[in-house]
Amino acid sequence: MFTYVLRRTLQSIPLLLAISVILYAILYNMPGGPLAPYLQNPHITPADIARLKHNLGMDQPVPIQYLKWLGHVLVGDMGYSTSNSEPVFQALIERFGATLELMGASLIIAIAIGITAGIVSAVFRYSVLDYAITTFAFFGQSMPVFWFALMMQLAFAVHGIPLPFGYQVQLPSAGISSSDTFDIGDRLSHLILPAIVLSLLQIALFSRFMRSSLLEVLGTDYMRTAAAKGLAFRSILFRHGLKNALIPVVTVIALSLPSLLAGAIVTETIFAWPGMGRLFINALYQSDLALLMGYLLLVAFLVVFSNLFADVLYAWLDPRVKYD
Predict the structure, then answer these.
(1) Domain of 119?
(2) 208: nearest Cα among 126, 112, 133
């Protein structure tokens, strides 16, 4: 296993390098290029542009510029953010915690609800409950995130949900907290709406994959043999069927990490969540190419890591899977 992980890690290095070349070429050829933030200044002169090109090394061939940039990245220097006036690495790290908090909460919600719904749907297949869960899954897969987020804000933040005895549920519509002091209750109340919105698509995906996978396992010979021996259905389901049914679902869960990070861009923007997704949108509006490059490289690394993580989990869930 260690040899396999080491080999896959080494194979990911040229892949990440190729991705960095493509990203660098795309961002370099954007309108204005790396000088786009400076060109927005109406008082800039051609002499200023020439001086900036020399100071930034843009008067050298593009391959040389890329190699110099790559050399800085390898030592942890991802450039300087013109929109935030701070190093790119520092800007990403400062907001990584908020994004991780939102992604973690969304993933926990998606796994808990999605896997449970998939199991219930498979056990009671073709029932009213199965059709209801399937309808919800189709709703989750087809619902635009931005529209669902706005409706959640309208329902829970603007109007509120009335409860018996005159109580009302009203949640914050934006931000990560109401004050600078840490209050766990306040943080959780701000987290509920964006976490639910971000987890909606994943709940739908996990439930559908879990249902189809568990139905396939329930129809195998060894499951019928276990039932013929007189074992209780609950024991057959949880001790023999569930672990094997989770194998393909693990791939979906592991590969959902990049999609959660991508979905956080829209969610964080709508809910004013101070994470990396909102930082990416601001960088895009202000043509902050260094920050865009740093964020996209982080997403690329997460995609590669997610694939490796899924392969390692295969061997743990299924002893028949061996990596030489």
Answers:
(1) 92-317
(2) 133
Same domain, yes or no: 286 and 246: yes
Q: How much of the chain is in helix, strand and coil states, percent to nearest 5?
A: 75, 0, 20
**What is the per-residue pLDDT across 259-316, written as a single tens digit (0 to 9) for each?**
787 778 889 889 988 888 888 888 888 888 888 888 888 888 888 888 877 777 776 6
Which residue carries 């390692």 as its tokens?
Answer: 312
Gap between the Cα atoms of 118 and 127, Å rounded: 13
pTM score = 0.83
The residue from 25, 43, 77 where one domain ends is 77
Q: Which segment of 19-33, 227-241, 285-299 scores lowest on mean pLDDT?
A: 227-241
Q: Does 183 fall in a domain?
A: yes
> Considering just the CA atoms, what is the radius of gyration of the chain in Å?
24
**What's the token pair of residue 225?**
């043999």
Residues 35-54: pLDDT tens digits? 777 777 777 888 877 887 77
Query: Looking at residue 276, which CATH number applies to its domain?
Result: 1.10.3720.10
Domain count, the chain: 2
113 and 163 share a domain? Answer: yes
Token pair of 286 as six digits: 């202000």
